[in-house]
Amino acid sequence: MKPIKLTMSAFGPYAGEEIVDFTKLKHKNIFLITGPTGAGKTTIFDAISYALYGEASGSSRDKDCLRSDFASPDILTYVKLDFELRGKIYTICRFPQQERKKVRGEGYVLKNAEVELVLPSGDILTRVNAVDEKISEIIGINKNQFKQIVMIPQGEFRKLLESESSEREIIFRKIFGTESFEAIQRKLDEKKKNLYKKISVTKTERDTHIKHIDPSDDEILLKLINENYLNITEILTRTKDLLKMHLQERKNIKKEIEQLDMDIERFQKDIMKGEEINRNIKEKEEVQKEYNSYILKEEEFKNKKVKLERGRDALQVKIIEDTYKHRKSNLKIKKLQYEEIEDKLKKSEKNLLTYKEILQKEEDKEIERKIIWDAIVNLKNQEKKAKEYEQKGLAILSLRKKLQDKKDFIKELKLFIKDEKKKFEENSKKLLDVQRAEISKEKIDRVIYEKEFIINEMRNFYRNTEEYMKKVSKHTKESKNFEEFNKEYISIRSKYEIMEDNFRRGQAGLLAKNLKEGIQCPVCGATHHPKLATLIGEVPAEKEINDVKNKINILKEERDKKITYLSDLNGMIKNNEEILLNMREKLSTVLGEDLMSIKITDMLQYITVKGKNISIEIKELKEKQSELIKIVENKFVIEENLKKLDENIKNKEESLQNEEKNYTELYGKVESEEEVLRGIEKEIPEEIRCANKISLRIKELENELKDLEKNYKLAQDNYSKANIEYASVKADKEAKLKNLQEEFKEVELLNEKLNSKIKQCGFKDYHEYNELKIGEDEIKSLQHEILQYSEKVHSLKDRLERILKDTEGLKEVCLEDLKKTLEEIVLKKQQLSEKELHVFWKINNNDKAIKEIEKINKNIMEDEEKYSVIGELARVANGDNRERITFERYVLAAYFNEIINAANLRLTKMTGDRFVLKRKEEKGKGRKQEGLELEVFDNYTGKARHVKTLSGGESFKASLALALGLADVVQCYAGGISLDTIFIDEGFGTLDPESLDNAIECLINLQKGGRLVGIISHVPELKERIDVRLEITPAKEGSKTTFII
């Protein structure tokens, strides 16, 4: 990164707009920044740093205190920087948060911080976060790294030299892009943890399946399953043996069930056969009984046949009788209709005469209707003129009202504008308060976040410490238990060894007792026995020895398990110790206190007290935060109010101008209309100026005329209707008389035909016919009943003959004994089926458990094999090795060696070959990660020492050499980072003349490689050696800059 042009406005000691054009240097890449103290030399560095990162170069300068005290209130504070990077031009401009004068009225408003970054493509970024991220991306380093390797301000020069290993790691990671190596470390550690977790979960799953094994009556298997440390192989072996036994048991039960099924089938067939015999015998008795009941009804159905025949004869007469009765009824109705029409004709004739008289009276009123019509026409002409006069008067009244309304509205509008302007001022003051509250809230938010982070770290440490202490306590307890158990084990084992020795010696004595000289020994075959074994007092039995041996084996197995458990517990304690140590180091850093010397038990009390204090501080801060949030929450509402008020004021002022203009125009119109009204009054007499009275009289006459015409039309309509009705009724009477005469003749003929048909069908008279007459439905019912009876008798007779043949020689069967025996067999089968199902579930459960356990065992073996490789890789890569160096630091150490070599080329020259920087390779105290520690070797003493022991001048030379060496190496390796510029603020005053000459020579050589070197210094020798200067001149109006080349 090379600066092209720096523009500062109202920044630091620079009152107006001050431009530093670096293009004036041309090919001279080293220059000196000079001027009196306080003139603004360091401000040049501050401006560049602020433009890029939003912060000044020195840690003591607050970004909120950058505005110039010399600046006019109208001038805004900002910094603009044009710079070149890898052949591309970038422009960035930043405005800090500041107060500016109001556009309207007096006073100030708070202007928020702004930023604008113009990219080579022409794209513009304006969001603060987006710009900050983009700057870090294109330059390749953050603000802290920038201050350590590019722009080294006062008080910051020694930081890179004296940084801790972890701080250098962060700087080098960004520069050399070793994030992938750190990612490999994380990935390996994640894989290790995931595998360990997976194996633990899988083992838990396997234990769950083991707990689901049904041991039945196998007490040994039950004991193995319930042990804390499971013997998987033994459990699987015994479960498989139990499974074979259950399979054989189920096979035997199935054979018994098959035999019972055959017995059930045989008994079911016997019962079905007996039930069929009993059913046929019962059916024979029921059919015989039903047949006899039907034979008894034979006489009854003969009488019903006679009744059916006479009913059919009467049915022929009934057809004529029904026609006769219908026509006779019609004759009666027509007679009544004729009598009614005669009465109606008389009434119609009377109505006709009445309506004729009324019509004559209404025709006589024609002259009266004509007089009223003429009066109405005359009055309507007068009403038209009166209305014209009144409308003109009303129009003028309306205009006068509008004029007054307009005047009132203008007055209200002026008052409203005055109120809105007052509200605008009030809201502007409120917004300023909110903006101040926002700044305070941001600071409190940051403090709360930091303190809550500390609290979380302390809670984690407290939890881990408690867990660690529990494990230590458990380990102590289990160790004591193991010691007691081990004593018992050693005692029994010693007893066993004595018994075994006595047994062997006893066996030798017994053998020797029967040996004689010259007879071969059955063990070695010798015939000479110089020293025979003697019999001991009591020889233990072999069974007794075997019992003790079995007990020892059981105890040994339990002892091995206890040893494994204690070993695992010890490993967890060690792991917890490492975690606690790292956490303690982290807490020491965030709290800024040395906690490494405090005892672990005292740490809990310390954290409790410290945590309570911090919690109280957080509570107090959150109360302040809540108060500020309530204030800040109103910001949007206030801004919206200001926006609306500003718009309202503009709109209302524009409306006021329009309303005043309209008022003038309306006033002229009112004057013109009143002049026209005065002219109309001269033309119309006063008595006919009221149109309302004329209109009422017209309505009275129109209503009177309407009533006369209505009565005349009604009389006409009534007479016409009465005349039509009379003619219609008269014609209807004549037709009904003719119909009545024809109906009478037809009834007489039907009566004669009925009497003739009664005699023809064999009835004495009408009375006999009427008694024997039945309806068609009854005839059909009798026919159906007689037919059904005949068919039923025939059916029962056939059925009885068949059943008598089928049951010949058969007796009723007793079914109770057969059913009882069948129930007993079915119950036995049910019991065996339940037993078989119970055994099946055991087989299914245990077979499934065996398969799952074997499958899980295979997975565990595979995962444990992976864990043995990945776990070791993760351990070594993450620094758990002899050198305590992580994989990434191992790579960074190689880069660091090159940086140190490049730095030593200059340092040896500047120090007369006395000092050489070197990377510290010896392990330090504690367990913290190392590999990037720096020390200096003093050739005068022949010893290495820490860089912090260097004097002021020595540390300046070492820092300068290290910064230049870093720039050299970065140029070679970091393709994404271009370090073409270095700025140095003071430090040369600590050098002796010879060291100063060597330092200047190094910097001159550096600028020959194309790098821009800027130096702030008061040292006179530098002015003599460096001919290009940027002179800063202070004045009452603010400082000015001038390049002297």
TrEMBL record:
InterPro entries: P-loop_NTPase, Rad50/SbcC_AAA. SUPFAM superfamilies: P-loop containing nucleoside triphosphate hydrolases. Gene3D superfamilies: P-loop containing nucleotide triphosphate hydrolases (3.40.50.300). It comes from the Bacteria. The keyword Coiled coil applies. Residues 243-304, 331-392, 635-866 form a coiled coil. Residues 5-271 form the Rad50/SbcC-type AAA domain. Pfam families: AAA_23, SbcC_Walker_B. Keywords: Coiled coil. The keyword ATP-binding does not apply. Belongs to the SMC family. SbcC subfamily. Heterodimer of SbcC and SbcD. This is Nuclease SbcCD subunit C. The lineage of its organism: Bacteria, Bacillati, Bacillota, Clostridia, Eubacteriales.
